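Notebook entry, structure prediction.
Reason for the run: the old model in the group folder had no record of what sequence produced it. Starting over properly, with the input documented here first.
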Amino acid sequence: MLLGQETVGEVCDIAFDAPLWEIFDEKLKDTGYTYENYEVTSEDGYILSLVRLVQDGESDEDRAVRPPVLFQHGIAMTAENWLTITEDTSQTATVLQALERGYDVWLSNSRGTRYSLGHTSLDAKVDTEYWDFSFDKMG
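New structure, fully documented this time:
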């Protein structure tokens, strides 16, 4: 999929102007959980964001024994969508349920999302080549 220069600019203006990690902060506020952000570089140079959910006060040793589980968002979404928390406290977000059940929870953000716009040599705002990837390369 190759976007025109005007479309690339519009997409990036929206993505770059939005507050980034404030959404995670807000959604996890008062839950007893927090997050750590990691960056991973793909073989073709895309810098992808991974989020690890952690319980407040949990040690690295405690997390090391948890079996890892990775949640991947759908098309036109980001990892923040996994943190949907309802007013009804009996309905906890799936990722928080996994954390409560002893899993080491990781959330990934596909290339081209506002959390994963980096690249080792391309600028998502100006290089249309940045956007020349297909669905099978999103992760």
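Summary: The chain has one domain: 20-121.
The old model has been moved to the deprecated folder.
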